[in-house]
Each structure stands twice: as structure tokens, then as C-alpha cells.
Amino acid sequence: MPSPALETPLIFDGGQDGRANRYVPPAPPVAELLPAALLRDDLPLPDNTELDVVRHFTRLSQKTFGIDTGFYPLGSCTMKYNPRINDALANLPALRDLHPFVPDALAQGALAIMWELERSLASLFGMAAFSLQPAAGAHGELTALLIAKAYYKKKNDTRRTTVIVPDTAHGTNPASAAMVGYRVVSLKSDARGRVSVDAIRAAAGPDTAVCMMTNPNTLGLFEDHIHEIAAAVHAAGGLMYYDGANANALMGNSRPGDMGFDLMHLNLHKTFSIPHGGGGAGAGPIGAAPHLVPFLPVPVVRAAGRDETSGRWPSDALTFALEFDRPDAVGTMRSFWSNFAHMVRALAYCYANGAAGLARVSQLAVLNANYIRASIRDAIDIPYDEINRHEFVASAQSIKRESGVRALDIGKALLDRGYHAPTVYFPLLVPECMMIEPTETESKETLDGFIAALREILTTARTNPQSILDAPVTTPVSRVDETRAARHPDLRWLPS
Amino acid sequence: MYTPHTARDIEEMLRVVGVDSLDDLVRVPEAVAIKALPDTVGPLAESEIAARFAQFAERTAAGNYLSFLGAGAYRHYVPPVIGALAMRGEFLTSYTPYQAEVSQGYLQAIYEWQTYVALLTGMDVANASVYDGATALAEGAIMAINATGRRAVLVSAAVHPNYRAVLRTYAAGLEIDVDELPYALAGTTDFTTLEKLLAGRRYAAVVVQSPNFFGAIDPLPAAAREMLTASGTLAIGVTAEALALAVLATPRSWGADIAVGEAQSFGNAVAYGGPHVGFIATTNEQLRRIPGRLAGRTVDKDGRTAYVLTLQAREQHIRREKATSNICTNQAHCALIATIYLAALGKTGLRDVAAHNLVQLAALRDALSALDGYAPRFTAPAFNEFVLRVPGRAAATLAALERRGIIGGLDLGRFYPELADCILMAATELTTGAEIERLAAALAEAGADAVARA
Fold it and tell me: Which domains does chain B have, with CATH numbers?
């Protein structure tokens, strides 16, 4: 096997004319089929044998770290095991090859999947209804803020122009607010790492459209005054938005709807075990409280017939249709109805757990995070050293002061020890921040191995800091020159 | 499920944490504590889940029908090698490649994807992907708005109706105007009013799609391109069927400043609408306005070639409300599938597939045009779709075909009331002569039915 350090040539550097694979029969030249003026001159793509292609992408996969290769404690990303049954179900030909424009009568099974998932999410998170449409969390945020905008427009309330976002929020929150023309009001966290009721009372006013919050927040702390916060925002006439990135902490235990949130998104690719696939595709369904349901994007899945929700398979007695004609809807958010293959995966995951199992999932995710925290607290600063939820933050500030080793370097040293790095330098308010989220699918043995590796790195940082600063040394490349990448952008291969 | 904790593990771990029970770990104030367990199905064993989804599949009857649907989602041959490589766990279960040293493989694949999109569109640069074709158009329009400082875009009515709908949804948020150019008799965009419309210098961009929603090849004519240049307006070229890029003149060659579209056709399943994969490509001039992730080639500390996510100062996790877009998660795995598809097919395979689409469409159009009462609605050259005018309402014809086990295509009356007697039909390399004969025979019968009923 080639050494992992060996460079893999680009697919464009190989290939020879005459090596084409015969996937379809030979075809007549296109010049015989269309006027020359409509045609392109050349198509400078390489022809490769299938074996070349297999080796190329196999090599690339070997230079990629996934959950399947090792522990991935990336905070805020919920890198849990992705069950293979879910992929097999998404690949069932009847579902995989289903065209989005087929008549509803011929898509009843697929619509039943969407309806069952929608009902399950509504019950799990305390919302009146969900739209499965958004393709990712940020897309869900955008959809929800468009709903807020449409809601105020319908009420002729033109003063609502701002969105309150705590300083611990994900970057997508303010970016989404900007995409609907809202001005962002940033809220400073209090000494407990939470939003204080006083701060929200001072910030919320007649211009407040929405307050966007994550609970537990990105420090891994439960916003224990969420009820009063929601009441304050509502008293000012604003809406509460729940960023569901951290929903893995609270399933079956506490529901955003009960906390007073009016709108929310879920990242099904985090909480519901859908593979991240190198950064997508995701799925970011949004939930709405009753007064906002009419504004959900179209289409929605409408059920008709006998409602036999007490039966084992509630959807079997119903017939379904995609409903487009909803006058208050914000419109449509994407080419077609949902990232449907992911809805299949998410429903299968719901089935595997049931509500009680999902509650257990969240409890064990919280246990794993706290176990790591309690096991390293004597070796590194834990700025908020209390019972955290599914993730927590550590700070490398004092290690940096003593040895010059930063959070980034600790992350790189973990790569050498077979672990993925935690999220670093986020949230922004903790200096030299490392955000650790183990998820519930990791065993105590795995956590113990990680804890030992981290403790060893922290010791080495003080005795031999250079070895940590030099890390990683076992990976296909050493530290990458990001400055050069940004100063001299090389974003594509060019034919020579 | 999928949790490894033994009772003893839990006990030991709770002791280390210093609490007595799991409930103590997740305690919340009484006011927000859950009152009863949510109502969901499960837990089920894997064998039960598989059986349940077999029922869902059984209840999804479309698979038993012969289908001529296209309209932005296309059934193409997918070599098994694509899935075998793309479903490797390292690719499937990785996150966004923020840790470059352990993500060199995926980063290189993204760089190769960006290159493929640039080569196919003729543009200088492409991003790592966006959600789908419709959101690619919306993001492209935002780029043009930011580049020009203008607050309106002008869109051809022959652009995919769902893409236009999404553009309008995004536009409502940004409070920008979306106006439309009509389509002409040939089925291509009618540019006769363009000069007048551009005179006010109101529009950030003009949007055309080629092949357009009717299947017609509809590039920006040279005269229109000159008007855009004269008025400082950008051109956005949309492609809802990326396969066409293998043979048609590139968006760059007819003057697109921003090329956007949908690449589902490259190895991705139609999957009832998603996930598919949108792309955005542009000129070097507009590079810093492009939304989402970009993989770049650089070197490591030892001088070896290395790849990394770059120009992140455009993105939400750095710039927050000043970012070029809010996009974070994209469609990386769908883009990977497309990349492997393009590598496996190569220029020869891709051209062959595209040529078969042209051949089969011609066969379909010829066979149906020969039928009494049926005729193509438009005359412009097409790629793999065309519009058939039927006697009476399209809905009635489609219902008659459905009774004969055929999904004939899309009723255009759904989006264009004036085309309620028209069906949009697609043929791909998977469409056979026998299938076309079966459709023609069914249409002949359906036509006779309609006459008999009338």
C-alpha cells in the first residue's frame, strides 16, 4: 500500500484518450444532432479506466477522517454513529427513484414517511407542526426568519427590524438575520455563561422581531431562565427562535415548545444520526407554534381519512397529498419538497429508539460529556465547571501562557493520537476555547482512551512543548499554509 | 439504541461526575420539564424497521409505472462503482473538512469538483456546492445584487418555475424586486423588450436558463449580452440539467458572469426531490462574492502539496452578519458522487450519454408528433425535454396514460395557465424505443378516448 504521505495526483493529471469506460453504447457525434452554433468546442475532461477511478477515490478516502475511522468529539456537530440500515432504506428503489413530480396517489408511501416524521418531530419538540423543507440548519433559520417577517407584515407591524442574538450563538444566526434584512443586536452572556433575564428585558423592545437562542447554549449550559426570557421577549411582542444544533441534549426531557419557543429548526444530520458526508447534505426541518403554522413554506403534507393514531402504524389508514395552496405561506425554499432520503434515515432512527430511547440517547450524551469534563478538570481550565449538557468547553489559556501551546496545537496533537480535534476557538467569548462533544454512541473505553491522550498531551505541552507545536506528524500532510492559500487562491486545476 | 453503556459503565461514570442518577444530569426547572413522553413509534428492532419500510416502498406505486418526467430531476444510468466509492465510510461519516491534515482526501475531491464545474461551465471558479439548483439561483442573484448595488433582477419566464418561486421567497426577505421576461413562440426567452427594460439601469442581473424549463436551448443572444454590458447588468446562466453542459456551448461562451445550476444528473438519485446538488461558478472578478465553501491548493509546512478550505473571511462562522451568505452545511456528499461520476464517465462517456439524450428525445418527439392531434408546442432545438400539445386538457391525457401504467410527464398548466393543453416530457439515455412505442400507442388510444367522450 502506498504511504499515506504520498501525494495523490489530481484526477486531471492522469487519464488517456482511448481509455473510456463503456457505461452506455457508443453514440453518434453530437455535431450530427444539433447545429454547430449551439455546441461547445471541446470538453477537456480526462478519460480514465474504472480501476484508475477506484484507486484514486479509495486513496482519497484513506486520507479522510470519519466517524467510522475514529472518535470525533467535534463540539456543536454531534458526530454520532450513523447506522447503516438507514442508508439501505434510503436506497430502496421505490424511494430512491421516486420522481418529485409523480402524482400524489403514486407516492403514498413516501408521503407517509414524511407525515410520520413530521408528527414525531412535532411531538418530540412540542411544536404544532414542522416543515421538512429546509436543506440544512442555516436554511431552516432563514426560512423561520422569513416566516417571522411575513407574520409581522400580516399584522401590519412595521417596527420589528432587529434580531437579538447572544454572543455564544452560531455564526449562521446573525448571517441568516442579515439575509432577511434584520439588524443584529448582540447580547453579552453573564458571568454564568448564560443570557440573563435583565439583559433580555433591556434588549427586547418594540423593534424586536426575533430572539434566537440555542439551549443548551454553545457552552453546553442549560439556559435555566429560559421561561422568563421567553416571557420577556413575548411581552415586548417578539418571537422566540430555537436553534436546534444542540437538540441532542434534551430529547424526551424538555421541549422547546414548552420553553416558550415559537419557531425552531433541527439539524437532523446531527441529532438524528444522518451521515454528514463531508459537510452535507444535511436537513434542517423547522417547527412552528400554532400561530405561525399558516406561514410554513409550501408544499406541506396533508393527511386525510380516518385518524387512527392509537394503532401501531398511524399512517396506514390515511391518504396523503402535497398541499401548495396556502395563502399565508412564505413561499417555497428549494427546488423540491425536502432532502427526502434524509427523512427516510431520520424516521428509521426514530423507529429504532422510540421516545423513551431518544430520552435515553440524550441522557447518555450528557453523561459522556460530563464524564470527560470531570476526568480532565484537574489538567485544564474548565471555565464553566458545573453539570454541563451534551458538550462543554475547556480553555487552553493558562497552558498557552506557560508553554506557548494553544488550543489549535492541542487539537493537532490529538490528530497524531488517532482522534479528531474538538471544535476550537468557538464560542468566541472563551479564550483558547476547545469545545468537546463526545455523543452517546461512544463507549467508556473510547472516552478513557481520549482522556488519557488529552492528559498526556497536556503534560507534554509543559515538558516538551515543541513536540506539540510540531504536530501533526503522522498525518498525510503537516500543518497547512493557510495564508498562502488565501493570498494566492488556487481553486481549480488548469489545463496546461 | 446505538448506545454502548452497560449498567456498570453508567454507575462508574456517574460516580466520576459526582451525581447519583442520569435524571440528575438532565434536570431542568419545573416550568420547562416535559410532562409526558412524546408520542412516537418505537423502539423497533432493525428487522422490524426494514419490514416497515418495505411496506412504505410497496405503498409507493410510481416504481411500477413507465415515466417520462424530467422538469429539473432526471433519471440517468448510475454505474455501481459510484456508490461503491462514495459510500465508503471515511467519506460518508466525515464532517466539513476544517481539520485539513486529516481531511486531505475530501478536500482534494472538493477541489476536483470545483474544477469539473469550472470546466463544464467555462467559468473561472466554482464553489464547493449549495443546496440545489433553485437556491443556487437565489444565491447567484444575491451575488449580483451585492456586485451592482441594484435592488432588482429580471428573470426569463422560461426559467424553472420552482427556481423562480425560490428566488421570489429569498427576494421577499431582502426586499428586492423580481421581474419577468416573457417567452416567445419558439419556446425561448423573448428579448424584444430587453433594451427598454434595461434603460432604467435598475436590474442587477438578467437570468436565463439553457436548456430552459421547456427543454429549449436558450442561451443569451449576442445582442442581448451587449445590452447588458452597456447597462452594467450582469448575466446569470441557469442549468437545471447539468448533463447538457457536456455538449452545449458553455454559459461563459454566451456571456454569463455567474453560472448556477443543478448537478443531480451526475450520479445522484432523484430521491423524491433530494438531496440534489447545486453549483455556483463565476469569474475571477466576482470570486470574493461567491457564497459557501471553497477548497484551495497550497503547501504544508514541509512544502508538500496540500488542500485546505480557504477565503473563509467570506463565510458566516468568521464574518457573521457580514458574510456573503448564511450557508454552512452544503451538499458535499452529493458533489462527491457527481465528481466520481464525472471521473468514471470521462469526456467520452459523458458525451455519449448526452448524445443518447439528444437521440432519444428526437425519437420521442418524432413518434408523438406523428400521432393525430398531437404536436410539439415549441420549435426551438431541445436537449432532452420537449413540450407536447395534446387534444384537450393535459390533465385528462395524463390521467388516461396513468390508467395505462404510464406517467406521461408534467402538466404545464400547473405553472403556466396558458399551457394547460401541454405536457413537458423528458427522454434520457435510459428511455428505450419500446417505451416510446408503448407511450405512442397509449396516447393514440387516449386521444381516441377523448374524441369518443367529446
Answer: 7-61 (no CATH), 64-77+346-453 (3.90.1150.10), 80-341 (3.40.640.10)
Tens-place pLDDT, residues B295-337: 999 999 999 999 999 998 888 887 888 888 888 889 999 999 9
B281, B297, B274: which is closest to B110 by C-alpha?
B297
| pTM score, whole prediction | 0.97
CB A295 within 8 A of CB A150: yes
Report the chain B residue with the minimal C-alpha distance to residue A309: B39
Chain B: closest CA distance from residue A315 (Å): 10
Instruction: Show the domains of chain A with their CATH numbers.
Output: 11-62 (no CATH), 86-353 (3.40.640.10), 356-482 (3.90.1150.10)
- Put simply, the chain A residues between 140 and 169 with a CB less than 8 A from any chain B CB are 141-142, 145-146, 149-150
User: Is the Cβ–Cβ distance between B138 and B150 less than 8 Å?
Assistant: no
**Distance in Å, alpha carbon of B442 to nearest chain A alpha carbon:** 18
Q: Nearest chain B residue to A360 by CA: give it.
A: B1
Sign of CA dihedral A206, A210, A216, A219: negative
pLDDT tens per residue, range B218-255: 999 999 999 999 999 999 999 999 999 999 999 999 99
How is residue A158 written as a grid cell? 412595521
Name the residue facing A138 among B91, B299, B327 (closest C-beta).
B327
**ipTM attached to this prediction:** 0.97
- Structure confidence at residue B446 (pLDDT): 86
Q: What are the C-alpha distances in Å from A347 to residues A38, A313, A344?
A: 46, 13, 5
CB B148 within 8 A of CB B233: yes
Residues of chain A found within 8 Å of residue B54, distances taken between Cβ atoms: 92
pLDDT of residue B314: 81
Q: Which of A181, A336, A361 sits opposite B73 (nearest CB)?
A: A336
Residue of A24, A334, A492 lying closest to B135 (CB–CB): A334
* A64 neighbourhood in chain B, CB within 8 Å: 90-91, 94, 97, 102-106
CB contact under 8 Å between B304 and A5, yes or no, is yes
pLDDT beyond 90 at A185: yes
Helix (H) / strand (E) containing A305: strand A300-305
Supply the pLDDT for residue A403: 96
For A129-173, write each residue's pLDDT tens digit.
999 999 999 999 999 999 999 999 999 999 999 999 999 888 899
Answer whether A24 touches B (CB < 8 Å): yes
CA–CA distance from B452 to each of A418, B113, B212, B393 (Å)?
74, 55, 36, 15
Mean per-residue pLDDT over chain A, rounded:
95
SS3 A2: coil
pLDDT, position A134: 98
Q: Which of B3, B311, B333 sits opposite A278 (nearest CB)?
A: B333
Q: And the C-alpha cell for B48?
A: 422490524
How many of the other CB atoms lie within 10 Å of CB of A229? 27
Spatial distance between the Cα atoms of B154 and B227, rounded to a whole number of angstroms: 13
